[in-house]
Design brief:
Its main location: membrane. Keywords: Amino-acid transport, Auxin signaling pathway, Cell membrane, Membrane, Symport, Transmembrane, Transmembrane helix, Transport. This protein has 16 helices and 4 strands. It is an all-alpha fold and about 475 residues long.
Length: about 475
C-alpha cells in the first residue's frame, strides 16, 4: 500500500509545472511519497524523555544504595555516555547507504536489514518486539501501583499507618486499559507528539516532587546511614545478597537509559530539513542530559534521605505518606506519564503488525478501508476497523497478563537484560562498522568491540540478578492478591 501511494504521488508530482493539483500534493508529501513529516528536535526530545524517564527513576535511590556514593553516580554517568554515543550511531542508520540522502528505514529492523541483513534482522526483531511487549505489560502494572498508592495514601492519612489499607490492583489495571484502548486509536507516531509532551511534563513533575521530599527529609535532620560502598555486608545484607543486588542495580541503571527500541521510529517523525540524523543527535543530547540530571538528583538525594534502607519506590516508602496531597499529585503524574509512555512503546508494535497485514492481504477491505467520521471539535477522523479490533485486543491481552502475573516486573527486568546489549550497543556498533567499512583490528574497530563486549557482560550479570529476583518472587506468588 505504501509502495502504491509512493508511485501514485510520484506520478502526480510530474504534472505540468504550476499545476494546482500537482503543486498541492507535492507540497504535502515527503520524498518517499508519505505525508510530510513535521517533527522537530523538540518533539523528538519529548518522545525520548517520555521513553527514558519512566517510573524507574523512583528506584534509583535503591540502586545507589546498593552501589554506594562512589560507584552509583559514576555508573549513571558512564551509561549516559554509552547511550548517547550509540544513539548517534543509530541515528546515522535511519537513511541508507548515505545518512543524509539515502533511502529511509522506517523501523529498527529496516535499518538492520539495509546495513547488515541475514539472520541478524530476525534476531533484531525478536529482541525489539519481545522487549516492547514486556514494557507495555510492565507499564500496566506500574501505572496501577501508582493509582493504588493514591488510594492507600488517603487511607493512611484518614485511619493511620497501622491500618493495612488492602487494595486490589485489578480495577485500576482495567481503568488503565480502557484509557489505552481509546488512545491506541491514534493512527501512528506522527500524531503522538502532544501526548509525549504531556507525559514529559508529568515526568518532570513527579521527579521534582520526589526531589523536594528527599531534600526536605535531609534538611529536616534525618540522619540516614549511608556509605561509600553502599549497603554493608553483615549489617544490611549477606555477602550473597550484596552480589545479587549489585547486579540488579547495574541492570536497573543500564536499562533506565534504553530507548533504542523506538529511536528509529521517533526519527521517522522528523522533517527532513535540517537532516534527520542531525536533529536526532541534538534531541538525544538534550533528552539524555535532562534525564541524567534528574537521575543523579533523584538517586543521590533519595539515598541521602533513606540511606541503606532506601525502598524500591522512594515516593511510597516509609515516611513519605505525608504530606499525602503531594504524594497523591506525584502518583497521578506517574500514572499520566505511563499512559503516554505506553503509547510510545506500543506504536512500533502496531505499525509492524499492520504493515505486515497490509502486505499480506492488500485486497481486504476490513484491513485497508478507512471510514471518515466527523468528530465535533476535532474534525475528520479516519476509522479503520482492523486497527480498532486488533489494537483493542492487544491492550486487553496486556492487561490480562498484568493481572495474572503481578510480579511481571521481574520478567520485564529479564527481558530488558536480554535486549539491552543487542539493541542499545551491538546493532548500532555493527551497523556503523559495516557502513564505514572499518578495517578489522584497527584501533577504532578494537575499541568499539571492547565496548560491545563490556556491555554484553553487564547484560549477562544483570540477567543473572533478574533471574534470582524472579525466583524469589515466585516463592511468594499469590495471583490476584490485594496489595498490603
Amino acid at each position: 500500500m505504501d509502495r502504491e501511494m509512493q508511485n501514485s504521488s510520484l506520478y502526480i508530482s510530474r504534472g505540468p509545472e504550476g499545476s494546482e493539483s500537482g503543486g498541492i500534493i507535492s507540497k504535502n508529501l515527503d520524498d518517499d511519497g508519505r505525508p510530510k513529516r513535521t517533527g522537530t528536535w523538540i518533539t523528538a526530545s519529548a518522545h525520548i524523555i517520555t521513553a527514558v524517564i519512566g517510573s524507574g527513576v523512583l528506584s534509583l535511590a535503591w540502586a545507589i544504595a546498593q552501589l554506594g556514593w562512589v560507584v552509583g553516580p559514576l555508573v549513571l554517568v558512564v551509561f549516559s555516555f554509552i547511550t548517547f554515543f550509540t544513539s548517534t550511531l543509530l541515528a546515522d542508520s535511519y537513511r541508507s547507504p548515505d545518512p543524509i540522502t539515502g533511502n529511509r528505514n522506517y523501523t529498527y529492523m529496516d535499518a538492520v536489514r539495509a546495513n547488515l541483513g541475514g539472520r541478524k534482522v530476525q534476531l533484531c526483531g525478536l529482541a525489539q518486539y519481545v522487549n516492547l511487549i514486556g514494557i507495555t505489560v510492565g507499564y500496566t502494572i506500574t501505572a496501577s501501583i501508582s493509582m493504588v498508592a493514591v488510594r492507600r495514601s488517603n487511607c493512611f492519612h484518614k485511619h493511620g499507618h497501622a491500618v493495612k489499607c488492602q487494595t486490589s490492583n485489578n480495577p485500576y489495571m482495567i481503568i488503565f486499559a480502557c484509557i489505552q484502548i481509546m488512545l491506541s486509536q491514534i493512527p501512528n507516531f506522527h500524531k503522538l507528539s502532544w501526548l509525549s509532551i504531556l507525559a514529559a511534563v508529568m515526568s518532570f513533575a513527579y521527579a521534582s516532587i520526589g526531589l523536594g521530599l528527599s531534600l526536605a527529609k535531609v534538611i529536616g535532620g534525618a540522619h540516614a546511614r549511608t556509605s561509600l560502598t553502599g549497603v554493608t555486608v553483615g549489617v544490611d545484607v549477606s555477602a550473597q545478597q550484596k552480589v545479587w543486588r549489585t547486579f540488579q542495580a547495574l541492570g536497573d541503571i543500564a536499562f533506565a537509559y534504553a530507548y533504542s527500541t523506538v529511536l528509529i521510529e521517533i526519527q521517522d517523525t522528523l522533517k527532513s530539513s535540517p537532516p534527520e540524523n542531525k536533529a536526532m543527535k541534538r534531541a538525544s543530547f538534550v533528552g539524555i542530559l535532562t534525564t541524567t540530571t534528574f537521575y543523579i538528583l533523584c538517586g543521590c538525594l533519595g539515598y541521602a534521605a533513606f540511606g541503606n534502607d532506601a525502598p524500591g519506590n522512594f515516593l511510597t516508602g516509609f515516611g513519605f505518606y505525608e504530606p499525602f496531597v503531594l504524594i497523591d499529585i506525584a502518583n497521578v503524574c506517574i500514572a499520566i506519564h505511563l499512559i503516554g509512555a505506553y503509547q510510545v512503546f506500543c506504536q512500533p508494535i502496531f505499525s509492524f503488525v499492520e504493515s505486515r497485514c497490509h502486505r499480506r492481504w492488500p485486497d481486504s477491505k476490513f484491513i485497508t478501508s478507512e471510514h471518515a467520521i466527523n468528530i465535533p471539535f476535532y474534525g475528520v477522523y479516519y476509522l479503520n476497523l482492523f486497527r480498532l479490533v486488533w489494537r483493542t485486543l492487544y491492550v486487553i491481552v496486556t492487561a490480562v497478563l498484568a493481572m495474572i502475573l503481578p510480579f511481571f516486573n521481574d520478567f520485564l527486568a529479564l527481558l530488558g537484560a536480554i535486549s539491552f546489549w543487542p539493541l542499545t550497543v551491538y546493532f548500532p556498533v555493527e551497523m556503523y562498522m559495516a557502513r564505514t567499512k572499518m578495517p578489522k583490528f584497527s584501533f577504532r574497530w578494537t575499541s568499539l568491540k571492547m565496548l560491545s563486549w563490556a556491555c554484553l557482560a553487564v547484560s549477562l550479570v544483570s540477567a543473572a540478578g533478574s533471574v534470582e529476583g524472579l525466583i524469589q518472587a515466585l516463592k511468594t506468588y499469590k495471583p490476584f492478591k490485594a496489595q498490603q
